[in-house]
């Protein structure tokens, strides 16, 4: 059986040969393009290629310049001398020593003025000279004993008037309320500041402090002053 197509007319018959021939021509053209060199045209009047021995030597022109006139000498006038009459002889006093000796008079103590130190309006409890006195602590003889009695009576007052808030018990609230109050100059309690975990506990602590009796005011150098005092009140439920 004869084939339908003529093998001599096959398109892909010599495709591989044509491919290699084309690649060879492309590489040859690329090589020639890379190796191609061009040069700028050379001018006959290019000064860079001229022989310096053939150049003409030019003589500089002769010019004349007029110099300025010299400055005139300055005539210095002689200074005027004033004749001053002789001053009178000044008698110098002998500088006396300011150091005291056995002949120095001593001023009486009554004539010496002592500047009074300003007393502050408020003094902390730990720095006050005479701390506030809790009612019942007047018989203590020492300042240390009065301070210890003050703190002991404060704890007794808190235990006596302590009452756990019902709402706090139902909610299971516990914690510590920090209380700061000020013993005024007349011995009353004021400027109460509280900080605790819940408002109900703070209200109970404020109620306890409001029931404090009137104190003897604290004194600084004999003058009544305000004395701030801080104490914690702990709220804890029994298991």
From TrEMBL:
Pfam families with a match to the protein in the record: TonB_C (PF03544)
Record keywords: Cell inner membrane, Cell membrane, Membrane, Protein transport, Transmembrane, Transmembrane helix, Transport
Tagged with keyword Protein biosynthesis: no
Ranges for domain TonB C-terminal: 149-239
Bilayer topology term: Single-pass membrane protein
SUPFAM superfamilies: TolA/TonB C-terminal domain
Localization annotation: Cell inner membrane
InterPro entries assigned to the protein according to its UniProt record, in alphabetical order: TonB, TonB-dependent_transducer, TonB/TolA_C, TonB_C
Sequence intervals crossing the membrane: 16-34
Protein family (similarity comment): Belongs to the TonB family.
Protein name as it appears in the record: Energy transducer TonB
Species of the source: Flagellimonas okinawensis
Higher taxonomy: Bacteria, Pseudomonadati, Bacteroidota, Flavobacteriia, Flavobacteriales
């Amino acid at each position: 059986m004869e084939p339908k197509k003529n093998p001599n007319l096959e398109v892909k018959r010599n495709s591989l040969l044509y491919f290699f021939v084309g690649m060879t021509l492309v590489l040859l053209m690329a090589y020639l393009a890379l190796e191609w060199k061009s040069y700028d045209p050379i001018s006959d009047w290019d000064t860079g290629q001229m022989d310096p021995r053939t150049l003409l030597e030019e003589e500089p022109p002769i010019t004349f310049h007029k110099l300025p006139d010299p400055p005139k000498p300055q005539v210095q006038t002689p200074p005027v001398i004033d004749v001053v009459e002789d001053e009178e002889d000044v008698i110098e006093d002998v500088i006396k020593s300011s150091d005291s000796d056995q002949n120095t008079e001593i001023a009486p103590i009554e004539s010496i003025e002592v500047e009074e130190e300003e007393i502050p309006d408020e003094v902390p409890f730990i720095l006050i000279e005479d701390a506030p006195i809790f009612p019942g602590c007047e018989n203590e003889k020492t300042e240390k004993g009065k301070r210890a009695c003050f703190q002991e009576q404060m704890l007794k007052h808190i235990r006596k008037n302590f009452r756990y808030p019902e709402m706090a018990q139902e909610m299971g609230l516990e914690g510590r309320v920090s209380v700061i109050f000020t013993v005024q100059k007349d011995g009353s309690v004021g400027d109460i500041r509280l900080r605790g975990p819940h408002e109900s506990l703070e209200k109970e602590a404020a109620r306890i402090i409001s029931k404090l009796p009137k104190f003897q005011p604290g004194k600084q150098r004999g003058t009544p002053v305000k004395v701030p005092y801080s104490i914690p009140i702990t709220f804890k439920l029994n298991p």
